[in-house]
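User: Predict structure, ligand NDP.
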Amino acid sequence: MIQIDLTGQVAVVTGGSSGIGLATAELFLRAGASVAICGRDAERLAHAETALMMQFPSAQLLAARCDVLDAEEVNAFAQGVQRRFGRTDMLVNNAGQGRVSTFADTTDDAWREELDLKYFSVIHPTRALLSMLRDAAGMGNASIVCVNSLLALQPEPHMVATSSARAGLLSLIKSLAVELAPQRIRVNSILIGIVESGQWRRRFETQAEPGQSWEDWTAELARKKNIPLGRFGRPEEAAQALFYLATNLSSYTTGSHIDVSGGNARHV
Ligand code: NDP
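Assistant: Predicted complex:
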């Protein structure tokens, strides 16, 4: 159990209605922070809000519908955070999804969509929340953490557009870290491998052998993909790394990343 008191601090988690984002929101709430989450699907968001409020009845939680690719919606979300909490100390850029396609079957539109998603899911929230993060820096901790993928360093041909965009995002994060360091805003990322999520559950339902359990199916896939720890990651395992990088636990770390891939990185 991580022992840190975030009472009075505010964490914003994009894509906080499911998977890694939801697990991260839980960790922040458990540590006493106020939390704002967003997502596009109102029903999923309401479900997440109810689940979090049941777990933490006195939570200071804002759940707002917002597509991170729409600058106006992101600005409205940021204004909502400002009205409700008056500050933002930590921003977790998590919203998004991957695209499975080879070079041969990726159209120009698909390339643009993927580059748009990977860049603007970081650019829009960062820009919209930056002035509050600057204010928070004067109060002790201001940070941005992005969910990135091991694909940034270890591209996969069957995810050509995602891999390429992830590498660009790693570069953007490094530049941002340097530009924002004098303002005492830290910027870091996590590089994840395969983490259990809705998308993998759906594949399990269509691809598993009759009678095959989720554990057996994922273990077999982990073997095929040569993941040294022999299993998928859990959302809370990615969330713990995000939590560390967002809080003062990592106060001397910026422009860096943590590998959360079960040992799947092949480079030294
Ligand atoms: P989930 O699908 O469980 O969660 C994704 C979250 O992002 C949901 O809350 C979703 O809500 C939200 N979201 C997606 N697009 C947008 C958008 N345009 N605007 C606002 N919210 C959005 O997946 P994960 O938890 O696995 O994914 C979290 C991040 O991790 C993603 O960026 C993903 O690409 C990345 N990742 C995941 C891997 C894995 O193996 N799971 C591997 C590598 C990277 P809604 O759909 O309602 O908008």
